[in-house]
Amino acid sequence: MQRLTVALLIACGLAACNRKGPELPTEVKDPAEESAGREGVDTVTVDPNGAFVGAAVDGNGEIATPQREFKAGDTVYISVPSKGRKIGSQVEVFWFHDDGKSRKDEAKRIEGPFTVFEFKPADAGQYNTEVDVNGRPIALVEFAVQ
Fold it and tell me: How far apart are CA 140 and CA 84, in angstroms?
């Protein structure tokens, strides 16, 4: 019995010697350095209901005729719902053509249930419109002009 106990203790000791030691800590990155390395670019989540595009708005500023395809010279409306935002907050809209160039930038203060922007694109192609509230992106709206 004593030999069995000694053999068991030796086997346990050998098994314990084959284990890896604790992992050494890796380099700890400073969040300030990490964000500086990204050149100020943060991940943004946009709300699919943060802004709407269409060919007409009603009396409150809500899109009355949703539409994503337009002809050159048509008026394109972007309507931004104010729900959950403070009156007086600044809403900015940046209209970009698929050539990467900005076509129009505009800013308004929230005064009612919807903040409406309009644009008459002259160039055919895809457009992307970024909507920001108080300097933070909240929506991206895409439409095409033929």
Answer: 18
d(CA 29, CA 133): 31
Length of the chain as a residue count: 146
pLDDT tens for residues 13-22? 655 555 554 4
Beta bridge partners of 91: 108, 133
Q: Count Cα neighbours of 96 within 13 Å in the Cβ-side half-sphere.
A: 12
Q: What is the pLDDT of residues 98-144, one digit of tens each?
A: 998 999 999 999 999 999 999 999 999 999 999 999 999 999 999 99
Would you say 115 and 129 are in contact if contact means Cβ atoms under 8 Å apart? Answer: no
| Sole residue written with tokens 């943004």 | 44
Report the predicted TM-score, pTM, of the whole model to 2 decimal places: 0.70
Nearest-angstrom CA–CA distance, 32 and 25: 20
Rounded to the nearest 5 degrees, what angle is found at the Cα of 79, between the Cα atoms of 74 and 81?
175
The conformation of residue 125, written as its DSSP 8-state character, comes to E
Give the span between the Cα atoms of 142 and 130, in whole angstroms.
Answer: 9
Q: Which residue in the block uniquely carries the two structure tokens 């000791």?
A: 13
